[in-house]
Write a structure and sequence with these properties.
Helices cover 68% and strands 4% of the residues. By secondary structure, it is mainly α. It has three domains: 179 residues, no CATH class; 98 residues, no CATH class; 142 residues, 60s Ribosomal Protein L30, Chain: A (2-Layer Sandwich), CATH 3.30.1330.60. Strands 1-4-2-3 form a four-stranded mixed sheet. Helix 17 links the parallel strand 2 and strand 3. Helix 2 runs parallel beside helix 10 and helix 11 runs antiparallel to helix 12.
């Protein structure tokens, strides 16, 4: 289900701006409210148009990144100083720049005229209200983009999904004044939406093409290796009666090359791996009558390749072990005195350390709870976060990601937001306990990756969780 940004703007901007703006402008709340009813979808339409190109979406991301979400919570305070307020002056200046970037002078002039005619306000009031609304709109959308973790392409897609909402909300005459052409097939909003969809499709197609090319290259290499190995194997069978020396001279190097290619192919493409497996089976069937000494040699070579793969896997464990090798002795001495509750995340971490860093490097808080529907950590359950902080203080080379999850009840977007906020609450608690923010990342996944069925209360409780994953 698409997110309706207009509903967000009406709630976070329109309802809060209405009273202060009408008093500041000397206009009635009725006419100011009517004007905002046209201004909000008009500016959102301008954002859609701007975000329909890669460069435009990038510019919007830069501007949204500079917006200040805190202004949404103190709209009344900004107006309290009157027209001489520095904050209000800065707001109007910023709004003028935003409107210039989105609409240009010609469209802005037309929009001022149509807002004036539609609302019954003075033309100067319409112009000022547009400049006032623009920064608040950018702040509200910027806050949403940050919460959702969107990049430029994600922003383009989100804006492209607004066409229907904007079309339904724009008052009569606004589309023509802005060049939206009544939102017809030739209208700018339709073009913006189509451009966004095209950009997304093109990105997906490009990814598919790259993956296909990689698969084709790996498959071709595997096929070539199989052909060479098959030819050599045939030659070995034909001359097998002459002894194992020819086998050792030709077939063994080919098989070694095949095995190495198979090892590398597993890193790139399953198609290549399948081809190599088939080739290896064909060689095995063909060479059943070759001398036992040659077969033993091939077995030894295969074992060497397997050992090589094992060594590569061991490197990951060694690297993880190295992260725990950086120890703060003072913090470690304090950690040794901590008693961890059975099954707690602290206990899981210490078992992982004491067990030689083997097993999964992902751990789940077992005793951490939050206030219902919020990211506020409940009471004494925060001690589990503090115990994790004690471990991170002792092992200064360890970096983590905090991941938040919910069950599948309620709105998916709200769940994703809640899961991210809870993960960030854990991160913030760790930072408060003295852990550098550079060592901690946070991510919210909503109801994704359930660990139990959401059909039962017990399963849903398990899915509402915070996990920690070691990344260094």
């Amino acid at each position: 289900m698409s997110i309706n940004l207009l509903d967000l703007l009406k709630s976070d901007v329109g309802s809060q701006l209405l009273g202060p703006a009408s008093k500041f402008l000397g206009e009635s709340e009725a006419s100011t409210n009517k004007a905002l009813g046209g201004i909000l979808p008009s500016i959102l339409g301008g954002l859609m148009d701007k975000g329909s190109s890669n460069s435009g979406a990038g510019d919007l991301m830069d501007m949204l990144g500079k917006s200040d979400p805190s202004i949404l919570s103190n709209i009344g305070d900004i107006f309290s100083g009157g027209s001489n307020s520095g904050g209000l002056s800065s707001l109007l200046s910023g709004g003028s720049g935003i409107l210039g970037m989105l609409l240009g002078n010609n469209k802005l002039g037309s929009l001022v005229d149509v807002v004036t005619s539609f609302s019954g306000m003075k033309k100067s009031s319409s112009s000022t209200l547009l400049k006032l609304a623009a920064p608040f709109i950018m702040s509200a959308i910027g806050k949403k983009v940050k919460t959702m973790g969107l990049d430029a392409l994600g922003l383009s897609k989100l804006l492209g999904e607004q066409k229907g909402f904007v079309k339904d909300a724009l008052p009569s005459g606004f589309g023509n004044a802005l060049g939206f052409a009544g939102l017809s097939d030739d209208g700018i909003l339709d073009k913006a939406s189509d451009a966004v969809e095209g950009a997304v499709d093109k990105t997906v197609d490009t990814a598919k093409n790259v993956a296909g090319a990689a698969a084709g290259a790996a498959g071709a290499a595997a096929e070539k290796a199989a052909d060479v190995a098959g030819d050599v194997a045939g030659a070995a069978v034909d001359t097998g009666k002459k002894g194992a020396s020819l086998f050792m001279k030709w077939l063994l190097p080919a098989l070694l090359a095949l095995l190495v290619l198979g090892y590398l192919g597993k890193e790139g493409c399953n198609t290549g791996v399948d081809a190599l497996d088939n080739a290896a089976e064909a060689v095995t069937n063909t060479t059943e009558n070759v001398t036992k000494g040659a077969v033993d040699a091939v077995g030894d070579a295969a074992g060497a390749v397997v050992d090589l793969a094992g060594d590569a896997l061991t490197l990951t464990g060694d690297a993880l072990k190295g992260a725990f090798g950086a120890v703060n002795d003072v913090a470690k001495a304090a950690l040794d005195k901590v008693e961890f509750a059975a099954g707690s995340i602290g206990s899981q971490f210490m078992d992982f350390i004491d067990g030689g860093f083997s097993g999964d490097n992902r751990f789940t808080f077992s005793n951490l709870t939050f206030d219902s529907g919020s990211a506020a950590i409940s009471g004494e359950s925060a001690v589990e976060v503090d115990n994790l902080a004690a471990i991170l203080k002792a092992y200064t080379g360890v970096n983590i990601i905090v991941e938040g999850y919910t069950d599948n009840t309620g709105d998916a977007t709200n769940n994703q937001t809640l899961s991210l906020n809870r993960a960030e609450a854990v991160k913030n608690r760790l930072v408060e306990q003295g852990i550098s923010a550079d060592r901690i990342s946070s991510q919210g996944y909503g109801s994704a990756n359930p660990v139990a069925s959401n059909d039962t209360p017990e399963g849903r409780a398990q899915n509402r969780r915070i996990e920690v994953r070691i990344v260094k």
